[in-house]
Write a structure and sequence with these properties.
162 residues, alpha+beta
Length: 162
């Protein structure tokens, strides 16, 4: 296999799993942004967004859950490195026309490896928390489009999901 061919970084030459050795890498500033969406029926969305109802509580709970999840990513994903997070931020956008909550999670660190998994975990757990808090009004809530949107830092530099 040539050095320019893609490879699965968590498998060694014999195909066995391994944790990537980042010991020789330098600490660099790294950032990752992940997105996800939670789509629900009109009734559940109406309850979520009604004045004086749960929007603030649901979204704040989802934000805290996302931060906690990003901090525990290495406990959830077997070969993920524990890394010092400098920042975890979560933003929400409400779309009345589609009854959707968009989630945007940003993670930053100064470390030897990237924060893509932490950002994706944060977005996923925020979505799961919204689902959990709204499921009584809609069992068919859909979590969709969880994906990495942007990453920067390290040897591979900047990447955008266009």
């Amino acid at each position: 296999m040539s050095s320019s061919s893609p490879a699965l970084s968590h498998l060694d030459e014999s195909g066995q799993i391994r944790m990537v050795d980042v010991g020789a890498k330098s600490d660099t500033e790294r950032v990752a942004i992940a997105r996800g969406a939670v789509r629900m029926n009109a009734q559940a969305y109406g309850l979520l967004t009604a004045p004086g109802q749960g929007k603030g509580e649901v979204l704040n709970t989802a934000r805290v859950a996302a931060v906690l999840a990003a901090k525990r990513c290495a406990d959830l994903i077997p070969l993920c490195h524990s890394l010092p997070l400098a920042f975890v931020g979560v933003e929400f956008a409400l779309h009345d026309d589609t009854h959707t909550v968009d989630i945007r999670a940003t993670c930053r660190t100064l470390y030897k490896t990237g924060v893509e998994m932490e950002a994706m975990t944060a977005a996923s757990v925020a979505a799961l928390t919204i689902y959990d808090m709204c499921k009584a009004a809609d069992k068919g809530i859909v979590i969709e489009q969880v994906r990495l949107e942007y990453k920067a830092g390290g040897k591979s530099g900047e990447w955008r999901n266009n």
